[in-house]
């Protein structure tokens, strides 16, 4: 028996490959099928099942393309009912794969169709659980993504999750390995560990949601506390996973297409396409196509695209680092942004050489910001971190302007002629925010390199530190409402 975790850091996502006696299973695959097909071909095994723990909201699964390429059967647990052919397994049903067995455990709570897959080895011993978004290391799945108006509330789902954990997962042996769907960085939970593989016994001991003496009421209260609104693309991805989507090969062929500056500009105007620049932040700051938006490929790229580009069908044109166009189109498709129309061949250099104009955004270091503040010349400072980060500790001179909610109505609080200094934790999010503000007509913008990581080492006056994890739901809600 072979078990392999295939972890994708930018989405904090774990897919899984199980192989036994010439047969294989893949659990929760990403959109692109090539890496899985290469693995299967190299091992010389047949893919028997593609197991889906639930309708994912934070990425588009590759189950449909993978099933078409291999003939494997897509398996969901009870209550899934997608708009394509699958095998709907019953709670407790066992699936044979080579010499091992996979038992389906229906574990509703994160969503109603959520299931956990229990792997038993050749001797029939419980070996591992693949928990999807039911159980993470250090946390459990958020119960507010599958609420239905007039039918289910997040409290209802949290109650189902309590029962699933107590009745299906916690009775398993302590030495069972836990393979979760996500790690730290995912918006599918609140307190996910940086570790991506663990022991169930450790979770019973250290995971707040698995306390042995925890009442249902305590569980519901703690699991639903501190939930900020989910990224806007979550429901759209869930619908794509439930209803189906275009072939990834077609999406890649359309998007990974070089365009001359003339073609690029013509398509941008004709299609009202968004120009998305994914290069290094210093390169973008120095020169970029006017009105383009920066979301760097080397940061939390796909989640920020999903959070900020509201229309998932938005036509997109790319400015990419040389040789990385296929990677960018692929990563966009993972979160459902399939309408990429091509990329600028030769990048900004070819744009300049064609005689077209560029724009720029100034950068300064934290010590320069300190100098400007002390001299009364810093204008207005915008801290674009999350409300919880801001409440934990911030510059007294700064206002919270969270990137997460930049598409809200709080632009009315800004003056297009104002002078703004933006910072986040490291300088990545603040440059995204600056690019959006610039595209909307705000001219005097300065990004602070190093962000709060460097600013906190200066002598600028700061708020007292308060641990954000201790904040009540009411405090978080108030902070969010204040910026919407």
TrEMBL record:
GO terms for biological process: glutathione metabolic process; hydrogen sulfide metabolic process. SUPFAM superfamilies: Metallo-hydrolase/oxidoreductase, Rhodanese/Cell cycle control phosphatase. Keywords: Metal-binding. Pfam families: Lactamase_B, Rhodanese. InterPro entries: Metallo-B-lactamas, Mito_Persulfide_Diox, POD-like_MBL-fold, Rhodanese-like_dom, Rhodanese-like_dom_sf, RibonucZ/Hydroxyglut_hydro. Residues 269-360, 375-464 form the Rhodanese domain. GO terms for molecular function: metal ion binding; sulfur dioxygenase activity. PROSITE patterns: RHODANESE_3. Gene3D superfamilies: Rhodanese-like domain, Ribonuclease Z/Hydroxyacylglutathione hydrolase-like. This is Glyoxylase, beta-lactamase superfamily II. The lineage of its organism: Bacteria, Pseudomonadati, Bacteroidota, Saprospiria, Saprospirales.
């Amino acid at each position: 028996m072979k078990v392999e975790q295939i972890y994708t850091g930018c989405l904090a996502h774990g897919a899984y490959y199980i192989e036994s006696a010439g047969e294989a299973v893949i659990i929760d695959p990403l959109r692109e099928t090539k890496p899985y097909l290469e693995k299967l071909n190299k091992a010389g095994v047949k893919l028997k099942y593609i197991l889906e723990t639930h309708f994912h909201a934070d990425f588009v699964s590759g189950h449909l393309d993978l099933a078409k390429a291999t003939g494997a059967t897509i398996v969901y647990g009870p209550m899934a009912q997608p708009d394509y052919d699958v095998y709907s397994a019953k709670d407790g049903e066992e699936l044979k794969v080579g010499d091992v067995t996979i038992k389906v455990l229906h574990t509703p709570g994160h969503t109603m169709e959520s299931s956990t897959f229990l792997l038993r080895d050749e001797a029939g011993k419980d070996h591992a659980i693949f928990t999807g978004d039911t159980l993470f290391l250090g946390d459990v799945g958020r119960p507010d993504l599958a609420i239905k108006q007039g039918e289910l509330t997040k409290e209802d789902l949290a109650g189902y999750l309590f029962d699933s954990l107590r009745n299906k997962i916690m009775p398993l042996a302590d030495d069972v390995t836990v393979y979760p769907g996500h790690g730290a960085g995912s918006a599918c939970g609140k307190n996910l560990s940086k570790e991506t593989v663990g022991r169930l016994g450790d979770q019973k001991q250290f995971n707040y949601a698995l306390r042995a003496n925890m009442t249902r009421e305590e569980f519901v209260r703690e699991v639903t506390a501190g939930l900020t609104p989910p990224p806007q693309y979550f429901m759209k991805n869930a619908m794509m996973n439930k209803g189906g989507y275009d072939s990834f090969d077609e999406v890649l062929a359309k998007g990974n297409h070089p365009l001359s500056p003339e073609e690029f500009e013509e398509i941008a105007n004709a299609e009202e396409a968004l120009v998305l620049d994914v290069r290094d932040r210093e390169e973008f700051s120095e020169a970029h196509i006017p009105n383009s938006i920066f979301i760097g490929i080397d940061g939390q790229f796909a989640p920020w695209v999903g959070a900020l580009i509201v229309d998932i069908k938005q036509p997109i044109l790319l400015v990419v680092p040389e040789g990385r166009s296929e990677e960018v189109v692929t990563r966009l498709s993972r979160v459902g942004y399939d309408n990429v129309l091509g990329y600028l061949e030769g990048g900004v250099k070819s744009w300049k050489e064609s005689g077209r104009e560029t724009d720029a955004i100034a950068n300064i270091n934290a010590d320069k910001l300190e100098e400007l503040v002390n001299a009364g010349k810093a204008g207005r400072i915008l801290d674009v971190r999350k409300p919880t980060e801001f409440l934990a500790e911030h510059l007294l001179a700064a206002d919270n302007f969270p990137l997460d909610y930049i598409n809200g109505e709080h632009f009315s609080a800004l003056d297009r002629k104002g002078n703004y200094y933006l910072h986040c934790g490291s300088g990545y999010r603040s440059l995204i925010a600056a690019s959006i503000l610039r595209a909307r007509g705000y001219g005097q913008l300065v990004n602070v390199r190093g962000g709060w990581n460097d600013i906190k080492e200066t002598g600028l006056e700061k708020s007292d530190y308060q641990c954000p994890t201790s904040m009540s739901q009411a405090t978080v809600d108030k902070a969010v409402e204040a910026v919407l």
